Every structure is written in structure tokens, then in C-alpha cells.
Amino acid sequence: MTKTEIIAKSNQYMMAQARHQLYEEPLIFTKGDMDMLYDIEGKEYIDCFSGIMVVSFGHCNREINEVIHKQLDTLQHISTFYLSEQMVELAEKLAHITPEGLQRSFFVNSGSEAVEGAMLLARAYTGNQLIVPVNHAYHGRTLLTAVSTNVSPTGDIDPRAKDLDIEFAPNGYCYRCPYQKTYPSCGIQCAHEVRKQLQQENHQNIAALLVEPIQGVGGVINPPWEYLREMQTIAHEFGGLLIVDEVQCGFARTGHDFYSNAIAGFRPDILCMAKAMGNGLAVGAYIARDEIGEALKVPTFATFGGSPIASAAALATIDYMQRHDMPGQAKKSGARFTEGLQRMEEEFPLIGNIRGSGLFIGVELVRDRITKEPAKEETLAMLEECKKRGLVIGKSGQKTNVLRIGPPLVITDEHIDKALDILHEAFLVVSKDFGLER
Predict the structure, then answer these.
(1) Other CB atoms closer than 10 Å to residue 365's CB: what's the count?
(2) Which band of pLDDT confidence, cut at 50, 70 and 90, is reported for residue 296?
(3) Structural domains for the chain
(4) Residue 26, class by beta-carbon neighbours within 10 Å (0-12 exposed, 13-18 middle, 19+ buried)?
(5) Beta carbons within 10 angstroms of residue 2's beta carbon
(6) Helix (H/G/I), strand (E/B), else coil: 420
(7) Strand 391-392 relative to strand 360-365, pairing
(8) What is the pLDDT of residues 115-163, one digit of tens each?
(9) Which DSSP state fits 370?
(10) Does the model's pTM come out above 0.90?
(11) What 3-state class would DSSP assign to 52?
């Protein structure tokens, strides 16, 4: 099919909610190779979005795909009513690479399923119902996860939240601190406000606090580690568990196998994962402490969860991550990328804040550094200018004014430098077009 035919068929047969594209004219990709993508017209792009943090170890990674091909020709599906060597080996592997104390896994197909399952497990274990996610959260599109999400231009909370026992609490968004304070002199007031809110609402018993250690769709918001540790303390004070959503930042992207591993004294009760877990294959899981994982006795199955092929893909991904020291590579490449962006920050007032960890980077754009007015239109223009020059990046944030940069962890130094050159050119054009030159 031609480009025109593909777009026409999309407009005719795809639902409205599935036709959202990042660009004015949709990009149609036909090939990927490690950190590169190629469109239907043969143009090449440096990929700095990784299919929303999924192909963290490269498009069509030959080492990983070799294992998948072999499994595909051996045994691809049997359902969870039966055991496979691959599934139990993956469960064992996850118990070794996730934070200490996490032992029992349940396999699913996506991050949405993982978080939903974790919430249901927390309710079963504690006997309590209230789930407390935080502002700017994004946890998926199933019923509970969608209601536990409030990333939108209006910041509105889903009206079903109260009926489903969901209540939001303050997050740790230092760049836009609602208390007009600065870390660390703030004494992590945002975390203490969570405790205060629960006390004021007389919530003596909750099922769980639900946090992303780095909020992806919310705008690559990484709160202070003290905030995360305090959330753990608060969850337990109120009779609940701490559920940590590492769907986006797990599997080496932040410079650690899991970001939770980096935080001293931080121990999730349940950890959720997906996206990069299969480097492009649909696979997810949630893993819990032993006594929590044993709390729900009612037999449950996931038709495709932990299938031999999905488990083989995840094992191959973890093996690649460890053999090639992908956490170390993410730290090294992330530092190179961030240093280049920081040099641009000195040149372009449009850049308000640079944050993240490893190759999970957010660049918040503002029209004025004093008022921090979100630069939404400028962000869209940046994506278009980068696209013209052969660079794919993402956007996020409540006001969609954050450039989201997350290339495959195998990105070369040459391509990092070329991506930075393209970003610099795009900032020059957008700053001039919007009258935001220094």
C-alpha cells in the first residue's frame, strides 16, 4: 500500500480514539534496526522514543530475536493452566533482579493489567479498599488504572474515582512545587501533605499507595528519594501496601535494573513491570512479597500471561541487559545526552527544566522561566522540526509541554551527538518562530 492508502484506511476503519498521532501528517514506519527507524518512503530517523520506552534494547535486536525465533518454532502457547520451563525460570529471574523481598510473580500482557492486578491483590491482602495514586499519575487504560490516572490538560479526576475507592494525593513535582518551596529545604512537604490528607479524610485503613518512581506520561517527574521513602512509611502507617509502577522506568532505562533498586531503604510491597520486559513483545508482570503473593487463593488465570514465547522473550531481554551491562550504558549515554541538553539550556530560554535518570529524560518547555507558563504549541513545533530532520522524540506532561527523550539503550555516541545537533537546530527555529530568542 502507498502512504496515502494507509492513511485513508486508518481514517476509515480505526476508531477515533486510536487515530491519535504525534504529527500533523502521520509517520508510517516499515523497518527498524537497533536505534534507527525507516519510514515508508525510505527516510531514516534516529529513534529517541523507543515505541514509548519499549524497545529499550534496540529494534529487531538479533541476539534477542534469535531466542524468540527458536521458541516460536518449538512451543508458543499452552495457557497458564500448564507450566513451562520458560515461565518458572522467568519468575525465578525476576525474584533475583527486583528489590529485595519480592518473590512471587503473576504474568500478564501489559502494564495496565499489571497495575490493575496489583491493586486487586493489595485489596485482597489488606482487606481494605482505598487506593491512593498521586497527581499526574498514569497507570493504564483498564477500568481501575484509567480511574487512577489524572494526566490531562484540565487535571480533572475521573468522576468514577469515588465510587471505585480511588483518591489522589500530592506528588513530588519539584519544578512546579505547589507550596512554593525548594528541595531539600522544603522538608519534603509534598509527602507530609499526603499523610495530612489521609488524616483529614479519616482514612485509617487504606489498601495501597500507588506511585511511579519517575512519572512518564506525567512529564518525566522524578521526585526526591526521600519523598518515595516517606510514601512507603505512610502506606504502612495507614494499614496499606506500597505499589510501585516501574512499567516505564524498569529494565535498565534509568541506569539501574529497576529504579527502586537504587533507592536506599526503599522496598516496594508490589512492583509492576511491562514495556521493555520483552523488547517489543507483549509481556508484563507484577511481583510481590511472599506473604502478599500468597494472599489471594481464588484460582486466576491469564490466557496469554507468561506464555512460553513471551517468557522466552523476557528471559532473552534480561540476559542481554546483563551481558551487555545495559544499566551502565544507560548511565553513560544518559550523561552524554543530558550534558548536551544542559548546554542548550544556557542558550535557549525555552528550556525550563531538564530532569530524569539515565536515558529517561524530560525537557520541560516554558514561555517564561519566571512564570513557567507551559509552552504547549512550541513543544508540538519541536516535534515537527525534529521529524523533518530525522529525529523521533515524544511529548508528555499535564500540559503536554515536556519533550520526552528515551532512545534505545544501545544508541551510539554518534547518534546521540547527531540527535543533539538536530535538537539544537529545532530549538533555533522554534525560538525564532515564537519570538523566544534570548
Answers:
(1) 28
(2) confident
(3) 3-60+325-433 (3.90.1150.10), 75-323 (3.40.640.10)
(4) middle
(5) 10
(6) helix
(7) unpaired
(8) 999 999 999 999 999 999 999 999 998 888 888 887 776 667 788 888 7
(9) T
(10) yes
(11) helix
